[in-house]
Amino acid sequence: xxxxxxxxxxxxxxxxxxxxxxxxxxxxxxxxxxxxxxxxxxxxxxxxxxxxxxxxxxxxxxxxxxxxxxxxxxxxxxxxxxxxxxxxxxxxxxxxxxxxxxxxxxxxxxxxxxxxxxxxxxxxxxxxxxxx
Length: 132
Prior knowledge:
By secondary structure, the chain is an alpha+beta fold. The chain contains three helices and five strands, in the order βββββααα.
């Protein structure tokens, strides 16, 4: 007796078997079913249940949507309004000045991602080394 193939109804546009399937289409699929597939037969129901038990059923996550709000006091993925690296803004107001001092001491520009605290430390070390 041959084993029944898992058949699903596509709930939203999905990429399966290297092809795009429109919502409402029925498709045979032997992989781990996600939320875009609704089981149509016993084999599909068993596969979906097995995937959910193992925690492998794909869940839809909406970035910063209703189910995924940003942390309190945060602005999600927006950079800090103070400028700099999104920190509290303390000391970042003179980042350009610190970069200029670094360039004068080291005769090269600092790495663009270098933070104010790191610049201060490196400048202080170099001044100590030079006896300034």
